[in-house]
Amino acid sequence: MDFWELFHGVEIVWVTWFFSVVLMGLLVRHLLIRLVRLDYRAMFARLSLRQIHNDTSGAAYSLSFIMVFPFLVLLIALIIETTFMLVTKIGTMHATFAAARTASVWTTRDANFKTSDSDFLLAQAKAQQAAVMAMVPYSRRFESEIPEAFEDLQNAINQLTDDTQVLFDIVRKVGDSMKGKIDIAGISEGLTAIPKQLDKMNGSLKLVVEEIKDLQSRLEVTADAMRYVPAALKYWAIYEFYNLPIPHPLEKKPNLRWHYIVKKYIYAAKYVSVELPKLNDSIDKWKQHIEAKVTYDYQFQITPIGIFFGEKKDGAYFYKIASAIRINNECPRNKNGSLGIKITP
């Protein structure tokens, strides 16, 4: 694979990562120089409690530190996020090679292979599967967040109910003020409070509508992801059969192992797409190259970074990371152009 593919499509990420690391290095260098020049004897000199209480040295630096601290945290977050993105770029390169190699095998398995019929769709599906499996280690775990959406909706409905109850109490007080001896002050106060309470109820109602839309969106995303569950379970079975490694905290928790693997596979299957150009049937297959392009929707771990670099969808911020490759077709140069190996789909 071409070395420059490592930079293709993520040029801005590399530039951001480089300048962030350089800036952090300069800050660390400045800090180390300050530490070297400190007078430690004076710092650790024996002081009385009164001297410590009255000592104001260094107070002038506190304000500047507090002002700079948020930017320092953002800089560290930027370095971490861009590093994750570059690691994911390496993953897409690996997935692209896997997809291209798979396509090379499935386009030469049959002498009667034609790009115009279902054979090409099968080859494309196998390339997609290979890319997904290659991207599982680099992907996040799929989380539907439906319980959280239900809880937010319930809180919004409770708020609307409370606001409605307050409005009823105000109206009842106005009605009570009109019974017997009319309370002009109470009526005036109630009539003034009713429009304000209606505005508050209107805001609560809008919040309920927004939460309903959010829940509907999350239900649609989850329903779409559920179609990948059977393939994810097969992947987990292979994972367990070969006893492949898994993060240390889950090693001794079998009930969580399959959750971890299946959720990562579902996420990869949902956000990985493969483009596989068709071969030209009028030209010998062995004379043509296999080209593949894998695109992965990277979800930002840190939302403030995603706001600047990403595109919002499915309730989060994403950045498309793509890799492409062109490899030689491994089709044999025999009469029928077939590997001679029967492969069952």
Structural account:
With 345 residues, this protein is of the alpha+beta class. It has two domains: 3-136 and 270-328, no CATH class; 148-219. Helix content is 62%, strand content 9%. Strands 1-2-4-3 form a four-stranded antiparallel beta sheet. It starts with 10 loop residues before the first helix and ends in a 17-residue tail after the last strand. The mean pLDDT is 77.
Q: Helices, strands, pairings?
A:
Elements: H1 11-36, H2 40-43, H3 49-54, H4 59-106, H5 118-135, H6 146-178, H7 184-225, H8 229-241, H9 254-271, E1 272-275, E2 289-299, H10 303-309, E3 311-313, E4 316-328
Antiparallel strand pairs: 1-2, 2-4, 3-4
Keywords:
345 residues, 2 domains, 4-stranded antiparallel β-sheet, 4 strands
Task: Give the ordered list of helices and strands.
Answer: HHHHHHHHHEEHEE
Give the tally of structural domains. Answer: 2
Counted beta strands: 4
> Nearest-angstrom radius of gyration?
31 Å
Low-pLDDT segments, ≥5 res: none
The neighbouring-strand order within the major sheet is 1-2-4-3
Strand content: 5-15%
Shape: flat
The major pleated sheet works out as: 4 strands, antiparallel
* Average residue pLDDT: 77
- Total count of helical runs of at least 4 residues: 10
Terminus-to-terminus distance = 28 Å
Helix share of residues? 55-70%
Please state the structural category: alpha+beta
Short description:
With 345 residues, this protein is of the alpha+beta class.
